[in-house]
Amino acid sequence: MAWEFRKIRPGENVAVESQRDPFAAPKWAPPVWHMPEALVLLVNAVRVLVRVVVFLVRNIVPVSAAAGLGWLAYTYGWTVPVLVVALVLVLLGTWAAADRSSFVRYLARPVRARWRSAWTYRRHWQPVLVTAGLTKTHKGREYLPSIVRVRCGPTSDRVLVRMLKGQAPDAWERVTANLAHGFGAVLVRVREGDRPGRIWLEFVRHDALAFPLPALPIPSPSAVDLSGVVVGRTEDGSPWRLRLLGTHVLIAGATGAGKGSVIWSTVRALLPLMLAGLVEVWAIDPKRMELSYGRPLFERYGRYSSDPHGGMVKLLEEAAEDMNARAEEFAGVTRSFAPSTSHPFRVVIVDELAFLTAYCPERDLRKRAESALAVLTSQGRSVGYCVIGAQQDARKEVNNQRNLFPDRIALRLDEDEQVDMVLGDGARDRGALADQISSVPEVGAGVGYVRLETSPDPIRVRAAYVSDDDIQEMVALALADLDAGEAEAA
Ligand SMILES: Nc1ncnc2c1ncn2[C@@H]1O[C@H](COP(=O)(O)OP(=O)(O)OP(=O)(O)O)[C@@H](O)[C@H]1O
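^ thats the input. predicted complex w/ adenosine-5'-triphosphate below
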């Protein structure tokens, strides 16, 4: 129980049960101990001293700077500190102009984090948490979760929070809307903390993915990393790197969700290695829409089929056969795959998986496609094969093959339960709101959620939009060595 000292009349100091709620009915406690005046003063003096020391330690840099300037002004007059401040500003300006990224990293962001910590988070912490029901009052004493540290990113803040003992992250997940409104954020996500009992709250200040991202420049061959080709941007403004080497990728999204932009951004990122003969793209195009634009490109630097009467399935089977032959060749010789012109990295893109499997009317073709896909996805990873499958319908009945794809992307989905079907259990609770992505193309097309290997928390991404003109430019670049007639024929 907490106590505070009250003075009743001179010489009469009493300790009473403390009451922090200003609206609570007055509760009179009988005097318990009569305290000497000097002891009361001493206790209060120690309290003030401790608070001052904590404040000084926490704010050592600004306090020292202010004290130094004060001392200069006192000793030499006000012009000297003004000159010192001007000099420091000039130095900081030069630093910012010369190396902006280090300036932002080592100075601007930490200063901003301190400011936001004090002004936005600590100032509103208690009222917002009380209203959101995240505090506990026990025997008149209020227990409040505490802020450990605040970090600022370009578009979001991360606040490390020490929860109350016995509190779990889902208590915070339930009130993310209250927190967002309380602290003026667009949305709030709850992330795993650095140790038990702590969580990171991610306050998104503004949506970095609200506007379409134009097609990224075609990279130089040495910049292409198959462990993470850049296909767009993540919510914190960093590049979205899609892993292809050693995995398979499923892109799930309702019609118009922008699956094409993920596929084309990937092809665009791979283009330099395709031209160098180190990567082949085998395109299977049942819809004859998205991939048909790049048909000459795929036919020259890979394969292409849109033939519904067995051609597409045959292509898949040939990929599976070739993969088997490669596996045999590599057995006992090499364990990690590095692409070469004799053994290029093969990306098999299937624009709509369900056309080959669930929707295919011919039972025989369906079975053959399913079995070739299963072979490719289960054994192809280590021998330089990557299957990228797009899928409109994420329901279980339609997509029984999703477990064959280790990496999955959830673009806009029609129903909330499809999110966990695509990204795995609990993904929606952890913030993958793929069912709430806007269906307005400018706002939501190409936006989605991915789960990285390193973290169970889904992150929000947007693929760059590769327009028809961009595709034509890629095709022209890839076929530049052919003369006009040949290109036409291709
Ligand atoms: N990354 C993006 N940024 C902005 N707009 C985009 C993006 N991707 C696609 N769009 C817009 O959204 C429209 C639909 O995209 P797209 O055809 O790629 O969707 P989809 O998921 O492949 O649909 P479907 O399954 O019906 O083929 C495009 O015509 C384009 O205008």
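The mean pLDDT is 88.
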